[in-house]
Fold Peptide chain release factor 3.
Amino acid sequence: MSEMATELHSEVQRRRTFAIISHPDAGKTTLTEKLLLYGGAIRLAGTVKARKAAKHAVSDWMEIEKQRGISVTSSVLQFDYDGFRVNILDTPGHQDFSEDTYRTLMATDSAVMVIDVAKGVEDQTKKLFHVCRQRGIPIFTFVNKLDRHGKSPFELMEEIENVLGIRSYPMNWPVGVDGNYKGVYNRRLAQVELFEKGGAHGQWVMPSTVGTVDDPAFADILGVDAHRALCDDIELLDMAGDEFDIDKVLQGELTPMFFGSALTNFGVRPFLEEFLKLAPKPLARKTVDGPIDPTNEDFSAFVFKIQANMNPTHRDRIAFIRVCSGKFTRGMSVKHVPSGKSVKLAQPQQFMAQERVIIDEAFPGDVIGLFDPGVFGIGDTICSEGKNVHFADFPVFPPEHFARVQAKDTMKRKQFVKGMTQLTQEGAVQVFRQPEIGVESFVVGAVGVLQLEVLEYRLKNEYGVDISMHHLPYSVARWLDGYQEGKTVKGLDSGVIIRDIQDRPVALFRNEWSVRWATEQNPHIQFLLVPER
Ligand code: G4P
């Protein structure tokens, strides 16, 4: 093996790139912070205190996030643990669902689903879970807030199966009574991990000397009743539960389940250690010409997110790329596949909490931010010069919320158009024109309502433009193939035809029923969910 091949091989082996998904308030931020702490990536005092005071997460960048206490953008955090190089992709945790979240999940190799023990599987978790499921990525479950009252572990297993349709395998099991658990039993290591209130690490570990749960030594520390109940539960799990099957885990058919409490540091370190062992390293990615292995020495990566004005003092645009194969080195020239242009990647950045660090190299699984000279678009591939890589199925999401927007002050039109153009390039919203309404206003479409609010906020804060926004009563967009200019589209009812940024005709409908009706009435027109590329 060449030196490069050996290096690539060992770097890929130790990479773990994952996203943490949850419904707001389940504890994703707290868990992320604890994982970072164990990885030594942040110091204890500053961040945790600052978070308490300011109530915002390490990954929050934009003012709007701080004001609303939500995380709108996704960031990337990296640390080393036990020989592993860990990349956590943070997904927005707010109620509203955005394309940003979907795209981040395109860049991940596995997902950790955080569930609040009292609330079980919630709406946002369901949606995020389904995206992971569609991609077939492995999902690990962390049941959080075990220091509090909650649902029983069996009830949660059943809920995960019924609501999400995936079987679960508890890696550990709570001991004691609900609301006052003494700790968890680690099934693989046959050890009891006791919950120490106020303890420095939140736990105290007692391995079994005989290697099974019915070790009498456990009865001494747990009490006879709690120990008997634990033995009964474990027996039931061993007999009636699923067997642990790593292949099923890796195919996303079985979720390893961990119980713990991020706030009190309980069960977090054992979870991290087990998770890193089980989670997949970066795997081959599909391209239209067949899979490309991460250890392939030809470099390839794709842009999954673009963000403008991350730092208000440097008006810049950052394109986040996920490296898929080969080694990235600072200053290398690559081919930007959609344009065929050669681009020099001079100042690659990595993002750690609020800081940026210039990096010299990166490997498959890593995410880096590149200054975007204006050539990158979401979903674009970059690869070694002389090569041609096209990654398969990068999803495009049809907008479901629409509004007409206009600058309040017509003198600000220039800034308005500039802001709209840049924010559209980020992919936060899609912009359409309605020719008969004139050039002063745009129609914008977004996957979630929050994106429209973010648009309004950012136009004001970053471009100094106040806008008026009028929400439109449509919820479905269809790109029209076979539409003839000037000819009526039958059955459009209260729908409307507008133009996307490339001047392609798009019909907006109130609901799916209207789409079906128009489809039947116009057999010569195809009503496409996403535009043809
Ligand atoms: P999110 O990112 O998923 O939205 O959740 P986040 O970590 O912000 O946690 C939401 C709330 O739940 C926070 O309380 C946090 O302290 C609490 N929490 C997280 N993990 C645990 C846990 O293991 N046990 C208990 N009891 N609570 C937990 P908050 O009052 O909203 O905020 P804060 O004042 O504590 O920052």
The two ends are 40 Å apart (CA to CA). The first strand starts at residue 15 and ends at 22. The chain has 14 helices and 29 strands.
